[in-house]
Automatic annotation (TrEMBL):
UniProt gene name: pyrF
Keywords annotated in UniProt: Decarboxylase, Lyase, Pyrimidine biosynthesis
A single BP term in Gene Ontology: 'de novo' pyrimidine nucleobase biosynthetic process
Xref: NCBIfam families: pyrF_sub2
Protein name, UniProt field: Orotidine-5'-phosphate decarboxylase
Organism: Maribacter luteus
Classification via Pfam families: OMPdecase (PF00215)
Catalysis performed (reactions): orotidine 5'-phosphate + H(+) = UMP + CO2
Keyword Lyase: yes
PANTHER family: OROTIDINE 5'-PHOSPHATE DECARBOXYLASE (PTHR43375)
Length: 273
């Protein structure tokens, strides 16, 4: 999917919501466990109830890998269902990969070609030759971890190298990579105050912002510091939406939580006009 298409969907839906499909069999409604593929049954119900409220879905692959082949199959069915029924929705494989060049190429083929995702999250630690293989794919997006939402972000990411915080180095250096136009960045909602500085380095890039909802980040602050002329934000919530209820009404309750965020986003978009 092109960035222009994503921007037009944001305006059309008045939403820059990304719903995280972090599906955990211990948290889904118990009646679904009778289904042959409970993970897919849950995802399908959530997608059917929420697709009009969001512009992106982000399955975190850990939640699928945790169930081995059964989990990979459910992930495959989920992305196929999205691509077939909602091709206008941006899909993110939250896999946090990155390795030496030829290995990265295999990861890129797996998630972009075999599964058909629009984007993948990548850890930048191994540098240029570990990231560029992902950037080589046309109309596919590589979402580099810049400043993450967790406490551990302060271990390395905010530490200074030559007087510059490492996450700023990641942003600056990545702009020199081949096909850097295909880059987006992860910035945690819990680090919203850093967004003003981040925007000085990457004014035009899309930012994937997880950490509202269960991790306590503020949507208002994220918008205040992080929005650009193209909106430039995909704000993710996973547990805060998909686990709204453990009862048979789980999908409609998830939609209510998604709608509450979408309404706040609509207000933010209005205030930009
Ligand atoms: O790359 C991510 O999506 C990510 C980066 C980050 O800094 N923090 C973060 O929480 N995430 C992911 O975003 C999702 C957040 O889930 P909730 O806290 O349940 O909304 C999980 O899938 C995390 O793995």
């Amino acid at each position: 999917m092109t960035t222009e298409h994503l921007i037009s969907e944001i305006h059309k839906k008045q939403s820059f919501l990304c719903i995280g499909l972090d599906t955990d069999l211990e948290k889904i409604p118990p009646h679904l466990l009778e289904e042959e593929d409970a993970i897919f049954a849950f995802n399908k119900a959530i997608i059917d109830a929420t697709h009009h409220l969001c512009v992106a879905y982000k399955p975190n692959t850990a939640f699928y890998e945790a169930y081995g082949i059964k989990g990979w199959k459910a992930l495959g069915k989920t992305i196929a269902y999205l691509n077939e029924n909602h091709p206008e929705i941006f899909t993110i494989a939250d896999a946090k990969r990155g390795d030496i060049g030829n290995t990265s190429t295999r990861y890129a083929k797996a998630f972009f070609e075999e599964f058909g995702f629009d984007s993948i999250t990548i850890a930048p630690y191994m540098g240029k030759d570990s990231v560029e293989p992902f950037l080589a794919f046309e109309n596919k997006h590589t979402i580099l971890l810049a400043l993450t939402s967790n406490e551990g972000a302060f271990d390395f990411q905010t530490q200074k190298v030559d007087g510059v915080p490492l996450y700023e180095k990641v942003l600056q250096t990545s702009l020199t990579y081949k096909n850097a136009d295909n880059l987006m960045y992860v910035v945690g909602a819990t680090k919203a105050s850093y967004l003003a500085e981040i925007r000085k380095i990457v004014p035009k890039s899309f930012l994937l912002v997880p950490g509202v909802g269960a991790q306590g980040g503020s949507l208002k602050e994220v918008c205040h510091f992080g929005m650009n002329q193209d909106i430039g934000l995909l704000v993710n919530s996973s547990r805060g939406i998909i686990y709204a209820s453990k009862n048979r009404d789980f999908a409609s309750q998830a939609a209510l939580n998604a709608e509450a965020l979408q309404r706040q986003m609509q207000e933010e978009l209005k205030s930009m006009d």
